[in-house]
């Protein structure tokens, strides 16, 4: 399932018609969320996913389970990003109204993602996630962690403390590509005058045009600098101003109230779509590997059988039976089982195309088959090995062509069997296959 296609379908499920409002819109979103939940459960419980692949992607499946729990609790997860020391953790604490995230003067205080439910927003299920700085010195691992968190979050707040650097703008572009709604918080606004703040906000809106809405660029002061006492009262303690994050908090709560469930369901579906793509790719790879083993087994069986059969022409008839049996096995590998008669007809179609393309090779094989009955001594072994190698090569071609037919859902495609078989012949190195086959067959003949 392509992610873009899934995204469009989920948008259709989750966004009510423009004319729908109130209860009707809520019912639409609720039904769509239920549909997404059912899709996630279906992915988790899919019996066709092999255990090995499920184990390989265990972390991803655990994320899907966590997303299901999140949907059931009605939570909206918000990831906070930014450079080191722009005040991400302080902003999280200010939004929470308590010291939940570690804040320090050294770079890199936040080394792992942390999260906490906003006290003021329990009824809306808003969950804040603090992340490491995107420009840590050992940044690759921590940056990857940050983007992993973004992938399973519903909304992103990017924190800056001035005009954007090149790295910050690149990160915003990357985050926007994840299709998450983005807010930009200009932190440490207490350091600027009113005119400077207005100019900075305008500059940030210009530089992020097309990525963020203008109203989503908001000035905040998560940890304002303490104001010094008046000179006449030199013994008075420094005053600690209250954080100024009300505008950002209200924007987050408004989004949570208006479309929190929609965002959670949409992003869970997007993640499930990517996981489905990964599962499909790994299943395809596993099937290709198994198909290669099946083809090689039949190549060996056919090559040795042809080489050992002393009766001219009869060895070729026996080889045709092995090819049909191989195609039956391949059809089971790809979950599209064929009967023996169906596989025989498929082998006949492929063989006819091979004969048209490579008549000279099959002529050599027929001559070798006839000569084998009258040759003696070492020449018999050499002739048998050569003929067996040709049988091996023919089985490779038939197996690969049958595999292509099965991968396409029992179809040769628009260009038909002739082009498909020709492409297979062109893609294989005949000389190396024949050399490998002859060496293997000779080794087995001499060991008998």
UniProtKB/TrEMBL annotation:
Annotated organism of origin: Dyella soli
Limits of the G domain: 77-188
InterPro entries, alphabetized: DUF697, GTP-bd, P-loop_NTPase, Small_GTP-bd
A Gene Ontology cellular-component term: cytoplasm
Primary residence: membrane
Compartments reported by the entry: Membrane
Listed GO MF terms: GTP binding
Topology with respect to the bilayer: Multi-pass membrane protein
Family annotation (Pfam families): DUF697, MMR_HSR1
Keywords annotated in UniProt: Membrane, Transmembrane, Transmembrane helix
Keyword flag Protein biosynthesis: no
Protein name stated in the entry: DUF697 domain-containing protein
PANTHER family documented for this protein: TRANSLATION INITIATION FACTOR IF-2, TRNA MODIFICATION GTPASE GTPBP3
Single biological process term from Gene Ontology: tRNA methylation
SUPFAM superfamilies linked to this entry: P-loop containing nucleoside triphosphate hydrolases (SSF52540)
